[in-house]
Amino acid sequence: MGVAGSGQSGFGREVQIAVDELSLNISSKKTVRSMALNYPAASIDVLKDDLAIALLLQSPWNYFASVGDGTVSLINHLSDEALRCPDEKWVLVGYSQGALVINQTSSFLSSWAWRISGVIMIADPARTATSGRPNYGNAQPGNGITVALPAYPAAHYSSALSGLTVDVCNEVDVVCDFSNLSLAGVLYNKGTEVHSGYTTSTIQLATAPATARAIQAQPAAQMFQPQAVSTGYGKILVSWSPARERGLSVTAYRLILTSTDVQFPRVVDQPANATSATISDLRGGSTYSITISAMSGYQSSLASPPFVIKVPPTPPEIIYAPTLKSRTTTSLTLSWGAPSFDGGSPLTGYRITAEESPTTVGGKVMSTVVPIDGTRSGTIGGLKPGTFYHVVVDPCNAVGCAENSEPNAFMTEPKVFQPPKDAGSLIAVSPSRLLDTRASAAVGADSTVSFQVGGVNGVPADVSAVVFNLTVTEAKSFGFVTAYASGTARPNASNVNFAEGQTVPNSVTVPVGADGKVTLFNRSSGSVQLIADVSGYYLPGTPTAPGTFQGIGPSRLLDTRASAAVGADSTVSFQVGGVNGVPADVSAVVFNLTVTEAKSFGFVTAYASGTARPNASNVNFAEGQTVPNSVTVPVGADGKVTLFNRSSGSVQLIADVSGYYLPGTPTAPGTFQGIGPSRLLDTRASAAVGADSTVSFLVGGVNGVPADVSAVVFNLTVTEAKSFGFVTAYASGTARPNASNVNFAEGQTVPNSVTVPVGADGKVTLFNRSSGSVQLIADVSGYYLR
Q: Among residues 445, 511, 446, 497, which one has the least CA distance to residue 476?
């Protein structure tokens, strides 16, 4: 392939000399064809004009436009040649502007280095002093004139061609030896005399390396036809017999796959010891012609006869993310574009897959197939209200459906929730502090204090019962506190037991007096400070709906001190159903559980009689400690609750029942559904909660709890505390309230029951208000419907 210089036609004088010499010396061994590149080859006068105009900063640089045309023409011509003659070898010869064309094409040519026997650059304007290429002229290493031309689109000559390229450049050639010119040299040069005066013998000598490479030992003989079989979607296994070498060792095998359905041929190289190859990602339903050649360095054998195979259809191509047309609380209607390829088999439908957001633990994956109807739209139903879904639409054909099309995320319409209205239904509220005697006066020994609940902070004046966290602090003596409805007789029960100087919390569920107040009695010989943080209340009236709450004046249904202590790793059950006005078929019960006279450290687990003991705790205790905690737990079919003492010593247990939930399946907002306690958080398995930091855990949609619950009841245990402090529980995504649920000292393990609203994301957040880290455990025992 010859590329003439500026103003020349055909090969031009210099290139013609090289072409004649190559043809003469190679033709006895090989079949030789000579081709001249057809491109503008703008004359040097154009460059002179360009330089003159450039001084006025208006040059269009037509000379380099000519080079650009030549570059495109050379690439296109060689691309056609590569397809027409896969085994053809090339020698490229360029003079002056023609050398610049080859220079600009070198990066493209590098992928075909195996085809090239040599490149001869005569008077290359882009010659560089550092190229290291052999020079058959008499010029010393130097730079060509392009270093002085600002419009020259600088490019680095491909290293893949460096060992195949030689220069022909004489000293004081203004084009290729520009950097070595002196003023005297320029005058002596007389413009272009040296540039246009290269001798025949010099050019002929420069063709020798290319000639030698062109006629050296032959590569392998023509390959036999390969064989191919289909091995799956878009895959074929091609096998062949080893090549017979003819002087040059086989270094690789090259497979070329062409198809009328595919724009560019597929080239696959395999190592010299290979006799088969699996080729993937082929277009399903398309017919491929496969040839194979044995490679010997940069040379190859003649290509084999082609083997033709039709690739079986594949699933369709993936499609882009769908868009949302409409939505309901339980469905999404989508539209989408067509796939770019049907896999070689007509489309049969579209598969819509909706997966709950990955943040939803245990979320379901819904799927449906929409038939072809011309609209490219469809609906997927059975979804949850107000839930984010990752939605994918995969096109399908007779072979199967595409995999992993681009997803999009949409949320179903939120459910319109009705406020609770049935008597005994819970209204969960963000914890609100309704009593703090530290701001007024401590409660004296054997004295009471009452605080207003009804008509305060949105609580109805005639509220029936209230849930609040009661904290005792600054106690001057040991004792206990009893909570009861204002204006009623004080029951024989306790809600919080405390020691002198101790800070102790406990959850309390208690009826509210006719005056809207709750009374707290300090049964001790010293004063105490009391704090009450209300987190919910029950609507007034007579409960009738399943899951509604009926409060009762606390009633002691178990006191093992009157019988026998509960032994190590042993249980005791007590009757709830049918006792003290509680219905025989009661679904769940609320009671205050007190552990005393403990002979060892441990914990107590409460659960429905006749059911499997859960992995949960309700009260943690140390040896000799008296510890209370509120418990909400389902009742067994026999009307009983079982208590398990997980310790190495006996304990005494006391249960004071303060209310129960009506039997039946709850359906109305604010009604309660008890579950066997389930551990939904244990930071000991991940990382402790740092000082003044939060941790959130998912409740909605986990372990049978509906995604849209309004509130949850769980036992919260603090352990491994590095400092004193307290924990506040509140609905995720809401402001943190001025309240506490568990107060703790350094190193202490403390439990407490928590009733708290659930955030819109189905989570509850716990805040560690201390100067050290803590480990937190949450065992959920029930939830309230929204």
A: 445
Helix H or strand E segment including 24:
helix 12-26
Strand-strand pairing, 447-452 and 742-744: unpaired
Question: What strands, in cross-sheet order, belong to the sheet with 619-621?
Answer: 570-575, 640-647, 602-608, 619-621
**Helix residue spans in 154-273 (DSSP H):** 159-162, 183-189, 200-206, 208-214
Our separate counts of H helices and E strands in the chain read 8, 43
> Which residue matches tokens 């020798």?
208
Q: Kindly report the number of other CB atoms within 10 A of residue 687's CB atom.
A: 10
pLDDT tens for 708-736 read 788 898 889 999 999 999 999 999 999 99
Say what the pLDDT of residue 420 is.
Answer: 85
As a whole number of angstroms, the distance between CA 359 and CA 760 comes to 13
End-to-end Cα distance, the chain: 82
Sign of the Cα pseudo-torsion (157, 162, 168, 170, in order)? positive
Please give the full DSSP string across 485-530, using - where no structure is assigned.
ETTSPPPS--SEEE-TT--EEEEEEEE--TTSEEEEEEEESS-BEE
Q: Is the pLDDT of residue 150 over 80?
A: no
Q: Which of 699, 769, 768, 696 is nearest to 732 (CA)?
A: 696
Give Cα 430 distance to the centre of its chain: 34
> Which residue's structure tokens are 């026998």?
564
What token pair was written down for 123?
Answer: 């008077």
Half-sphere exposure at residue 15, Cβ-oriented, CA atoms within 13 angstroms: 27
User: Which pLDDT score is estimated for 153?
Assistant: 67
Give the pLDDT score at 468. 86
Beta bridge partners of 522: 447, 481
- What is the distance between the alpha carbons of residues 742 and 717, in angstroms, rounded to a whole number? 8
Query: What residue ranges in 252-364 does DSSP mark as E strands?
Result: 252-258, 266-271, 276-279, 287-296, 299-300, 307-310, 323-327, 332-335, 347-356
What is the mean pLDDT of the segment spanning 131-144?
A: 93
Residue that has been written with the tokens 């360029």 in this structure: 94
Residues contacting residue 57 through CB under 8 Å, at least 6 positions apart: none
Position 55 pLDDT exceeds 50: no
Range name among 59-68, 271-280, 436-445, 574-583 with the lowest pLDDT average: 59-68
d(CA 627, CA 350): 61
Exposure string of 179-195, with b = 16+ CB inside 10 Å and e = fewer, is: bbbeeeeeeebeeeebb
Which long-range CB contacts under 8 A does 54-58 form with residues at least 24 apart?
Answer: 54/150, 54/151
